[in-house]
From TrEMBL:
This is Dihydroorotate dehydrogenase (quinone). The active site is at 208 (nucleophile). The gene is pyrD. It is found in: Cell membrane; Membrane. It comes from Aequorivita vitellina. GO terms for molecular function: dihydroorotate dehydrogenase (quinone) activity. Pathway: Pyrimidine metabolism; UMP biosynthesis via de novo pathway; orotate from (S)-dihydroorotate (quinone route): step 1/1.
Length: 370
């Protein structure tokens, strides 16, 4: 139904306008009681889908990538489509409008999207207020299970078994456009401190191609300094939160080896591979030359290559969340086979609809039966 009727209708309109219209539509349907209907159609619940990573229990391994719900406006409603985790953001300390419109383009022939949004968002405090209003306050994952007593572990196990896993929320954080790279760490600290009590994990975004000079922060020294500073803040808390790094697919093998070393040095919890690409290889669509980051099917192969490289070269030393070009259950399984522990959707969710989440989870369960 989605690809036959809904998508052709939506694709007749400006992509950014229809994005906001879709938000209003989903909110309306939930207000009149459709949340339970969506859950019954799309949600797959099975203990075999649960994944435990960096002290968090994910109800299933399929998440929504950052960029879709930038301002934490719709994560509760979106959870009813079957996601196991949802990433809000990218949020910045101060509100900013982003780049000039038009800034979002469909490449229909390529099943892709080019965006140059530029971290448009209402600022971290606005996101926090929405998380508060929805009762979103989370406890941090345990620091080190090995150091807890047997009695504590036993009590925790009983408690965990007695409650069903909930959708987890990630906070994707970035810097404001006007903040120079030399002062970027302060922006990340502001977002980290503001969101700490309201998200389950953090993602440091230094890989968007749409904020001038942001990707320069992926270089070894500035990235190490940034992550070490955040880790110091994190480790000073009573209970720390997982910190992940989101990287670009355009990094060279040498740069990817640097990423592995940085993760080991800073002891962050994992990597999200990958963000959008600036490559335009093999595209057929007329508007392929638009500036911005490319997502969708053309990114699939490269994202998987990056996941496999990081997993093999690090000897699976850290968890990887795989994202980029997932438009089918087979695409998701391929990323899991390459070394990803979890996967995220964005463009595939737009092109294929919410049924894709169910298809992936059912395909994972099918593997358990064979």
């Amino acid at each position: 139904m989605y690809k036959t009727f809904i998508r052709p209708l939506f694709f007749r309109f400006d992509p950014e306008k229809i994005h906001h219209f879709t938000f209003s539509l989903v909110q309306f349907f939930h207000k009149i009681g459709f949340g339970s209907i969506f859950r019954s159609i799309y949600k797959v619940e099975n203990p075999k889908l649960e994944r435990e990573l960096f002290g968090l229990k994910f109800p299933n391994p399929v998440g929504l990538a950052a960029g879709f719900d930038k301002d934490a406006k719709l994560y509760k409603e979106l959870s009813n489509f079957g996601f196991g985790f949802i990433e809000i953001g990218t949020v910045t300390p101060k509100p900013q409008p982003g780049n000039e419109k038009p800034r979002l383009f469909r490449l229909k022939e390529d099943s892709a999207i080019i965006n140059r949004m530029g971290f448009n968002n209402g600022g971290v405090e606005e996101a926090v207020e929405r998380l508060k209003a929805n009762g979103k306050a989370v406890s941090a994952p345990r620091n080190d299970p090995a150091k807890s007593t047997s009695e504590e572990r036993s009590k925790r196990t009983v408690a965990e078994r007695s409650r069903s896993p909930r959708v987890l929320i990630g906070g994707n954080i970035g810097k404001n456009k006007i903040t120079p790279n030399e002062e970027a760490v302060n922006d990340y600290i502001i977002c980290f401190e503001a969101l700490f009590d309201y998200v389950d994990y953090f993602v440091v975004n230094v890989s968007s191609p749409n904020t001038p000079n942001l990707r320069a922060l992926q270089e070894k020294k500035p990235l190490t300094d940034l992550l070490q500073t955040l880790q110091e803040k994190n480790n000073s808390k009573a209970k720390r939160k997982p910190i992940l790094l989101k990287i670009a697919p355009d990094l060279t093998d040498e740069q990817l080896l640097d990423i592995i070393e940085i993760v080991e040095t800073t002891q962050i919890d994992g990597v999200i591979a990958t963000n959008t690409t600036i490559s335009r290889d093999g595209l057929a669509s007329e508007n392929k030359k638009e500036m911005g980051g490319l997502s969708g099917k053309p990114l699939n192969k490269r994202a998987t290559e990056v996941i496999r490289f990081l997993s093999e070269k690090s000897n699976k030393a850290f968890p990887i969340i795989g994202v980029g070009g997932i438009h089918s259950a087979e695409d998701a399984l391929e990323k899991l086979d390459a070394g990803a522990s979890l996967v995220q959707l964005y463009t595939g969710f737009i092109y294929e609809g919410p049924g894709l989440i169910k298809e992936i989870n059912k395909a994972i369960l099918k593997r358990h039966k064979t």
